[in-house]
From TrEMBL:
Gene3D superfamilies linked: Cytochrome c-like domain
Keyword Cell membrane: no
Name recorded for this polypeptide: Sulfite dehydrogenase (Cytochrome) subunit SorB
Its EC number(s): 1.8.2.1
Stored InterPro entries: Cyt_c-like_dom_sf
Keyword vocabulary terms for this entry: Oxidoreductase, Signal
Signal peptide residues on this chain, from the entry's feature table: 1-28
SUPFAM superfamilies hit by this protein: Cytochrome c
GO MF, any single term: electron transfer activity
Transmembrane segments: none
C-alpha cells in the first residue's frame, strides 16, 4: 500500500514535469503578433510649423505637442507670448535657454501678423 502510493506520487511528478516541458516548447513555437505600419488621423493636422518662424518654432515647440496646439491660440501680444513661452520652460521643462525666449516670441508674433 505504501509502495504504491509513493509510485503514484512519482508518476504524477513525472507527468507534471513532462507537461511543463511540453508547455514551454509549445509557447516558444507559438507565432508572435505581426507588427506592421499603421496610419492614424489625429484631430489636429499640422504637427509642424510651416512658413514664418517655422525653423525656430519647430526646433523648440514641437517636442511635447503639435504646432496646431500653438496655432489655435488667439492673436496674443508679445508680453503674453513671453509669459506663455516662459511657462513652457519653467512649468513644463522645455529645454531652450532663457536667452532664446525673445527670439521665440518674435517668431510667434511675426507668425500671427503674417497670418492675419
Ligand atoms: C517640455 C514640453 C513642452 C515644450 C517644449 C513646449 N510646451 Fe507648450 N505645453 C506643454 C504642456 C504640458 C502644455 C499643457 C497641455 C495641456 O494643458 O494639456 C502646453 C500647452 C501649450 C499651449 C496652450 C496654452 C497653455 O498654456 O496651456 C501653448 C500656446 C503652448 N504650449 C505653446 C508652446 C510654445 C510656443 C512652445 C515653444 C516655445 C512650447 N509650447 C513648447 C509642454 C511643452
Amino acid at each position: 500500500m505504501k509502495i504504491i502510493s509513493t509510485y503514484s506520487a512519482r508518476a504524477a511528478l513525472v507527468a507534471l514535469a513532462a507537461a511543463t516541458v511540453c508547455g514551454t516548447i509549445a509557447l516558444a513555437a507559438a507565432p508572435g503578433p505581426t507588427l506592421g505600419p499603421l496610419s492614424v488621423n489625429v484631430p489636429s493636422p499640422g504637427g509642424y510649423f510651416q512658413g514664418t518662424g517655422a525653423e525656430i518654432l519647430n526646433q523648440h515647440c514641437v517636442t511635447c505637442h503639435s504646432a496646431g496646439f500653438v496655432e489655435r491660440q488667439p492673436k496674443l501680444s508679445a508680453s503674453t507670448w513671453t509669459v506663455e513661452v516662459t511657462k513652457m520652460k519653467k512649468a513644463f521643462g522645455a529645454p531652450y535657454a532663457e536667452a532664446d525666449i525673445p527670439k521665440i516670441v518674435d517668431a510667434l508674433v511675426a507668425r500671427q501678423k503674417a497670418m492675419k
